[in-house]
Amino acid sequence: MTLFMAIAAAMVVVAIACVLVPLLVRRAHAGPAPEAANLDILRDQLAELEADVARGVLPGERYEQARADLERRVLEEAQGDPAPASAPQPASAWTAAALAAAIPIGALALYLAIGTPSALSPGAEPQHEMTRKRVEQMVARLAARLEKAPEDPEGWRVLGRAYAVLGRHPEAARAYERAAKAPDAAASGRVAGRVSLAQGLAARAAPTHTVFIFARADGGPPMPLAVLRKQVRDLPLEFTLDDSMAMAPSLKLSYFAEVVIGARVSRSGGAAPQSGDLQGVSKPVKVGATGVTVVIDTALP
Q1: What angle do CA 243, 240, 148 make, to 5 degrees?
Q2: At a CB cut-off of 8 Å and minimum separation 6, what does 275 contact?
Q3: Among 60, 71, 132, 275, which has the highest number of CB atoms less than 10 A from its own CB?
Q4: E strand or H helix at 184
């Protein structure tokens, strides 16, 4: 606890200095980087993935892929560039004095309100510190996954950057070599075909009604893997769905073997299906398929 208090006091002093020095001498200082907030968001996404697995919505294989993708993004955030410097603002001596008093008082009040005093006990361990050890663990998991599925050039590039940040330059060089040799798996992550509206339903659709063309994993999560938005006036039309249209980085066409292609006419323009919408769905097709035919021939009850 004594060590913690010493560190906390030192941090308060540093915080005061960081605020007062620019105010008094009018020097620019760098703004705070957003990486910490991004890491919190990524942790929340990981928790959502674990909840999906517990509910049986997301298969274990897709969970591992999604978790690896999130960990890759954590590594990229950890390597992010610092925020640009901001211009200093003038302040009077009274403002500086008020800030010098407000910072430690505010810090103490905030700690008393939302702090965790129990964390000061000798047995307490930090749960969410992005320590070097945790980064190395994530790097090791990414390396293990890439050894099992090496056809991921972007994964090898992320691994190379991570190794470089950790100072493991020979391993970084090997990872970059693997990235250069790996085929681009995303090239096959597409489905192409044709969507048309059944003649018997043409009178129930206006030319300006929205048409959503989407792909879902066959037997997988309900979230669309790719979505294309058009209008009834464009029908019939040739379409191509690919990984660039993914709704989430961890759910792409190239991550699944078979998908179902659907098309829906929405009178409201909303993404959620509503009664009266017109829809058509294909049979399961393999990712990479072309010539898929979808006929919008059903009215939703």
Answers
A1: 30
A2: 300, 301
A3: 71
A4: none
Measuring CA to CA, which residue among 209, 215, 204 is closest to residue 263? 215
Is residue 195 included in any domain, yes or no?
A: yes
Q: What is the span of the domain harbouring residue 169?
A: 132-183
Q: Is 247 helix (H, G, I), strand (E, B) or coil?
A: coil
Distance from the first to the final alpha carbon of the chain: 64
State the pLDDT at residue 78: 65
pTM of the model: 0.42
Neighbours of 39 (CB within 10 A): 16
The domain boundary residue, chosen from 150, 183, 216: 183
3-state SS string for 21-33: HHHHHCCCEECCC
pLDDT at 158: 86
Query: What is the C-alpha to C-alpha distance for residues 219 and 51, in angstroms, rounded to an integer?
Result: 18
Q: Which residue has the tokens 């179902």?
A: 260
Give the whole-angstrom CA distance, residue 149 versus residue 146. Answer: 5
pLDDT score recorded for residue 154: 76
The pLDDT value recorded for residue 266 is 94
Look at residue 196 in the predicted model and tell me its pLDDT.
96
Same domain, 216 and 241: yes
Same domain, 169 and 232: no
- CATH assignment at residue 176: 1.25.40.10
Report strand pairing: 258-266 vs 85-86.
unpaired
Residues 178 and 196 in one domain: no
User: Is 125 inside any structural domain?
Assistant: no
Residues 194 and 263 in one domain: yes
Same domain, 191 and 176: no
**Is residue 126 one of the residues assigned to a domain?**
no
pLDDT at 195: 97
Which residues in the chain come in under a pLDDT of 50? 27-32, 82-91, 124-125, 127, 185-186
Please name which of 294, 283, 289 lies closest in space to residue 253, comparing C-alpha atoms.
Answer: 289
80 and 167 in contact (C-beta within 8 Å)? no
